């Protein structure tokens, strides 16, 4: 296996990781900003107020994007990794 092939597989894996993590990170960012704004406006500084809604938002987005995540990982496996395994 050449260096170019290894770099292509690593690049595809990193791209898949980025695509899979973006919806979850965006949900955490948006919910964190909304909660932070709410806390600043109401002067409520409760630690669980930041944790629980952010966790709920992350779980909802994770649940909603499971099909997309599975398809992305299957495409990575079938299109990039499996052909390399079969050729050797």
UniProtKB/TrEMBL annotation:
UniProt entry tagged with the keyword Transcription regulation: no
**Predominant subcellular localization, coarse grouping:** membrane
InterPro entries, per this entry? Bac_export_3
Q: Member of which family?
A: Belongs to the FliQ/MopD/SpaQ family.
Report if keyword Transmembrane helix is assigned: yes
Name the chain's protein: Flagellar biosynthetic protein FliQ
How this chain sits in the membrane, per its record, is:
Multi-pass membrane protein
Q: Which GO terms describe its biological process?
A: protein secretion
The compartments listed are: Cell membrane
Signal peptide start and end residues: none
Q: Which UniProt keywords apply?
A: Cell membrane, Membrane, Transmembrane, Transmembrane helix
Q: Which GO terms describe its cellular component?
A: plasma membrane
**Superkingdom in the source lineage:** Bacteria
This protein's species is Pontivivens insulae
Enumerate the Pfam families for this protein.
Bac_export_3
* TM regions (residue ranges): 12-39, 51-74
């Amino acid at each position: 296996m050449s260096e170019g092939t290894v770099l292509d597989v690593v690049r595809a894996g990193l791209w898949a990781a980025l695509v899979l993590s973006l919806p979850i990170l965006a949900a955490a960012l948006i919910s964190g900003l909304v909660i932070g704004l709410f806390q600043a406006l109401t002067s409520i500084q409760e630690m669980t107020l930041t944790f629980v809604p952010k966790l709920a938002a992350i779980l909802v987005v994770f649940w909603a994007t499971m099909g997309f995540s599975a398809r992305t990982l299957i495409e990575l496996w079938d299109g990039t990794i499996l052909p390399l395994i079969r050729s050797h």
